């Protein structure tokens, strides 16, 4: 009995140490706080296609608009402006007054790639009798865009035709190159989207307002 009393304090200390060690083993190590997240990159400012624009002292109305896709990626928005409603390339060519094609990029585009795509579109849609005549202007178009390293998201590409002055290209309001005086040149460029081999058939219908007409009539 005396021996048990002598060991009692030692047993109590051992039990205390065991309990402390067991509790320490059960307590998870402190987890460092996660690093603060970097602030999100601001999205480019949204540039909208206005219902009307002023050009050469006249009011142009948005004939139709749409979005160009590559696979599921949105590349640019585009709108067609004219003084009167048109539903075909021929009607656009016959429409009086100035005309405009307005593109708003939705992602960064390489300037040379944009130029190549536009020249290819002109080649694909030019009538056989016009291709040779358009070669100098296609080369010029390629040089204009080839000189631009890239077009950031939100860049405005404007293609204006003004009677008596011709067709001019603008990037964010800055004219690129000299205007092309030939009145048929604007239509040659417009064929990229409105010709027989357009960049996107659905987009062609949207620019000509055909989708809107179908919706109003309940057509498919």
TrEMBL record:
Residues 47-209 form the Chalcone isomerase domain. GO terms for molecular function: intramolecular lyase activity. Keywords: Signal. The keyword Signal applies. The keyword Signal applies. Transmembrane segments: none annotated. Pfam families: Chalcone_3. Residues 1-25 form the signal peptide. This is Chalcone isomerase domain-containing protein. It comes from Ottowia oryzae.
């Amino acid at each position: 009995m005396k021996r048990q009393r002598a060991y009692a304090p030692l047993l109590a200390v051992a039990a205390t140490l065991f309990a402390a060690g067991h509790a320490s083993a059960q307590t998870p190590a402190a987890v460092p706080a996660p690093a603060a997240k970097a602030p999100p990159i601001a999205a480019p400012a949204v540039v909208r296609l206005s219902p009307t624009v002023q050009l050469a002292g006249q009011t142009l109305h948005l004939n139709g608009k749409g979005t160009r896709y590559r696979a599921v990626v949105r590349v640019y928005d585009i709108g067609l402006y004219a003084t009167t409603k048109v539903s075909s390339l021929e009607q656009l060519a016959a429409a009086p007054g100035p005309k405009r094609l307005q593109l708003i990029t939705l992602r960064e585009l390489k300037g040379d790639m944009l130029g190549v795509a536009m020249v290819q579109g002109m080649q694909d849609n030019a009538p056989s009798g016009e291709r040779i005549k358009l070669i100098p202007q296609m080369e010029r178009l390629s040089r204009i865009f080839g000189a631009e390293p890239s077009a950031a998201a939100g860049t405005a590409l404007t293609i204006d035709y003004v009677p008596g002055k011709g067709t001019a290209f603008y990037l964010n309001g800055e004219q690129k190159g000299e205007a092309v005086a030939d009145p048929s040149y604007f239509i040659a460029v417009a064929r990229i989207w409105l010709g027989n081999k357009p960049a996107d058939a659905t987009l062609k219908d949207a620019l000509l307002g055909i989708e809107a007409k179908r919706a109003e009539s309940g057509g498919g």
